[in-house]
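Checklist before submission:
- one chain only
- standard amino acids only
- sequence pasted in full

Submission:
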Amino acid sequence: MRDMGNIELYVKKQRTRRNIQQAVLSAIAVTGILALAMVAPNVIGAMGRIIGDKYKFGYRARTVAGRLAKKGLVEFLEKDGKKYLRITEKGRHALALETEKAALRDQRKRRWDGQYRLVMFDVPEKRKSVRNRLRAIMHGCGFLRIQDSVWVYPYDCEEFVTLLKAELRIGKDVLYVVVECIENDRWIKKHFRLV
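Returned file contents:
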């Protein structure tokens, strides 16, 4: 029971870290270039709420900027003795992917059009880590696994799949298909609360 509490705490911390990273990326993307000293105030405004102690939050935002730079999502520039952050092309792609993930969550509130979206993939064994990451992302976004490499989603997700293929560099290994009928689909409808 204690282990479950530790897992939930870990998941909560990871989610908070991703939210802060998204806010920093968004703030930099909106402004184009952002002074490092301005990261914390801009992020707080972008988040819409302060997570815990605001001073601790400002420190986290600056350390997140360092992590984002290490991942290649932003770059540091120096101009007139001040440090600035600028989003990279890789950062723009990551931000677009996260925006599409949020759009997928919002689509669940809309009415279903009666069509299923299938995502099928055949990623080679030598790229096993990419395949596992693909599965984790799809699971996290609410896709349902109906066979080993076949996932289904009831709402339009073509833009998301396109961005995901570009992000993971697996374009030729993934197929996106729209179908009107899946045999014995009652359990799928039940899973997505479509009935």
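Reviewer check: Residues 110-191 form a domain with the Alpha-Beta Plaits fold (CATH 3.30.70.240).
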